[in-house]
Amino acid sequence: MFKDKFKVDIAEKTAQAFRDVFPDLFISRPDLYIFDPDRLSERLETPKNPEMGNYALPLFDIAKILKGNPVEINKRLAETQNSRTLHPHLVFTAVGGFNNARIKTETLARDTLTTILEDEQDFGTSTEGQGKNIVIDFSSPNIAKPFGVGHLRTTAIGHSLYRIFEKLGYNSIGINHLGDWGTQFGKMIVAFRKWGSDDDLKTDPISKLYNLYVRFHQEEEKDPNLSEEAREAFRKLEQGGHDEAELWNKFKEYSLNAVKKTYETLGVHFDHYTGESFYNDKITPVIARLRSSGLTKFSQDALIVDLEEYNIPACILSKADGATLYATRDIAGVLYRWETFQFEKALYVVAASQKDHFKQVFKVIELLEEREKIPASKRCSGRLVHVDFGWIKFRDEMMSTRKGTIIFLDDVIEKATELARSKILEKNPDLKEIDKTARQIGIGAILFADMSTRRQKDVNFDWDDVLNFEGETGPYLQYTHARLASLLRHYEKKVSPEIDFSLLDHPEEYRVLDLLYKFPAAVCQAAETYEPYVISTYLIELASAFNKVYQRKDDSGRIDKIISDDAVLSQARMALVNCVKIVIKEGLYLLGIEAPDEM
Q: Which of 26, 313, 338, 475 yields a CA-CA distance of 20 to 30 A from 564?
């Protein structure tokens, strides 16, 4: 992960200062590992008030060990730290019981801006994942059903994680585990035979299939016999029935064509479309493997793995009639992916409602590997991660394909795009490529609205919130980027790293420098926590900090222009502008959002 060299340096200097202030203690207590640089580095925090410095070391626990007052210890420590000449680029301050460190402006500016201007979009890129595969299972809509807003979260989060891990050097492998198997296809077959026709599928096939699915559940409430007809239709499909398979393939083809258009609109990429049906021929060998390991038993004629001692519900592998379940296919999927990709991690970006399901699947894999005495280095069970997330609701109501309360994502995209287009025509009617820019803004608004909420929280889908083009939104970030691009066009000179870094000495500029330096750490944190929200909040903070620079007034009350008659000062400020533009564009890319140069 990202190695913060300033943090390391501060920890080393602080560790030495402790030894200078309390030499006798360290002679008598060589076991005081808390004062090792690595331990001190772990304890460093970010002050809540940026004006207090870049880093803060709380001394309260340390003062107990030293049997002294943290405030008095801090005064002696800071005095010793600042008296040392080994590192003239840091200033230490005693703030109560917190030992604060501030990087001097010129040092922070030179180190950060030079690196960004040289690396450009590769700033924050790392090789830590080189040669390692990250498998990401995300989106996974059901075929024969429209792509609803409910699938936006898994799609947006999964696609963002794909890009974040790629930036860290991993080989991301995106898998779309399509819901293309199960008893619902028996329902679809029955519904199509009763109320559908081939002509219906020639225009808008997904809406027609969706209407049939909704109608089936409405009719089923009146006629329970329909349920048995559906089970029989699916049984024939499982057994290779020609007519049933032909209809199923037709549903799948229409669905894939439609969903791929949606992914193309969103800019989402998958390496593999391997749905549930892909594992049908792999299930029998997996069940045989589980049975030979002694993990299975029969309960009420169903084959299960009993997980009661782990406080997990039993994992049902097959029903009394021999039909396999979703869990069986997921177990087969895990084993297939491990054999195929030898992944470092396998992420399952699936709703929190499936927590118990993944506990069952992951535990069965773990027990199987233990029973088979597979060496720890060759096991996949410790590499499986359920990246869960909350529900999307519409006006506080849950969406349901059965009840017909689903909201089509394509409709949301079109509405957001049209709103963006109307705003462009209102504010900048001479803009080139209005339609393209409007779509970029509309999609950016939708994606950012999703990822600006921590993934484990529920999102209440509301048109006014999603399509708000002011405040902490995707369009706000896109507009900030466009403003930066406009400044660079207006400047009409090459931005060089050969500048006077000491001129960037205003508090507003220092805040921007500090945030720019922390971009690689934000990328790493997003990967560690599987949380694109880290990137979205970072970008809002950076854009807000830059806009304070942009709007700052001088002593006379006039806007302190970035480009002025002072050529040397303008060059320094434009270097800052260019670096903010680079980082915002790259951050938006990691969220799957485009950054227009004009709006």
A: 475
Same structural domain, 367 and 501: no
**CB-side exposure of 117: number of CA atoms within 13 Å?**
18
Domain span including residue 154: 133-294+321-398
**What distance in Å separates the CA atoms of residue 439 and residue 423, rounded to the nearest whole number?**
12
C-alpha span between 532 and 534 (Å, rounded) = 5
Does a structural domain hold residue 118?
no
- pLDDT, one tens digit per residue, over 449-500 is 899 999 999 877 676 766 666 788 999 999 999 999 999 999 988 888 889 9
Please choose, from the candidates 505, 509, 578, 582, the residue with its C-alpha nearest in 3D space to the C-alpha of residue 539.
Answer: 582
Structure-derived torsion over alpha carbons of residues 127, 133, 139, 145, reported in degrees to the nearest 10:
150
Dihedral sign, CA of 193, 196, 200, 205? negative
- Looking at the structure, tell me whether residues 183 and 275 fall in a common domain: yes
Q: How many residues does the chain have?
A: 599
User: Is residue 58 over pLDDT 80?
Assistant: yes
Nearest partner of 295 among 383, 356, 359, 369, judged by Cα: 369
279 with 243, same domain? yes
pLDDT at 401 (0 to 100): 47
Tell me: do 422 and 521 sit in the same domain. yes
What is the CB-side half-sphere exposure of residue 98 using CA atoms within 13 A?
16
